[in-house]
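call fold(seq) -> tokens
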Amino acid sequence: MIKNRKIWLFLAVFVLFAVILPFIGAEKLDWRAIFARGGAGGPYARIFFQLRLPRVWLGLLAGGALAMAGAALQVTFRNPLAEPWTLGMAGGAGLGAFVARMCPGLWVEAGIVNTAQLLALIGAGGALALVLAVARRQGGGTTTMLLAGVTVGVISGGAIMAASGLVSPDKLAGFHRWLLGGLDAADWRAVGALALVAGPGVGVLAALAREYNPLGLGEAMAAGQGVEVARVRQWTAVGAGLAAAGVAAVAGPIGFVGLLAPHAVRRVLGADMRVVLPVSFLAGGCILAGCDALGRWAAAPVEVPVGALMALAGGPVFLWLLARRR
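ret:
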């Protein structure tokens, strides 16, 4: 009963954020003017429906996708520090999306699907494959996997920074903003693109929830209960890759959401992945959308990129978790 109440509390906070956060920003909005008869074409309504609302929903969905990916990666590889950023997936996805944005000749767009999403997916998958190959060669240790993941992320970031020197000055500011990770370019098209790419990934991870529980007890235990460990790992990589690629394509590389949310949820609700996965989605969405709102409000009219805030919040938690490991 208590656990059910806590789950409903997470859901209530998620809904509350979806309703309240669009009203937070540098410009104060009069809700009566927004929803008044004949006010749909007014400036307040345009700010609310075309700028604030899609931005909040992009944050909720992006944070949720990254959090679910982090929770699944942690149990699959039995590594409490695993998430799209620490395993290099966010960096690889960001590099792929950057290449698409930097090379106009590669840009192909069909509806809400574009080259950035495809190359981001390839980058995320390639980064994870490289990390796993290095870790397997060195015995598959957790520390090796983390070092390889962070190294791949650093290399991806270095490649992006080096290539940004080739970008014309008029585009450079936009690229640097994107590199920090942010939701300031959000619109309903971006929300649709994220849902199209990350949505199937979230669905894949949710479908594996029952198989994650025995896997968390060890590969031998999981295999004894009929879990195909190799298949679960492959599909987890696919699901997490889709989530990381979808977010990187529209918001840039954003880290640590997949680290903070699952650990918070496990502390409150336990380790049952049938509960952890969906509630991590709710918690991750609230964390990212809430940090974005804080960045818009705290230094208004200047905005602090949410990627920078997540690094400030997640970095110390990462070090704390690393220090606790024996």
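Residues 2-29+63-324 form a domain with the ABC transporter involved in vitamin B12 uptake, BtuC fold (CATH 1.10.3470.10).
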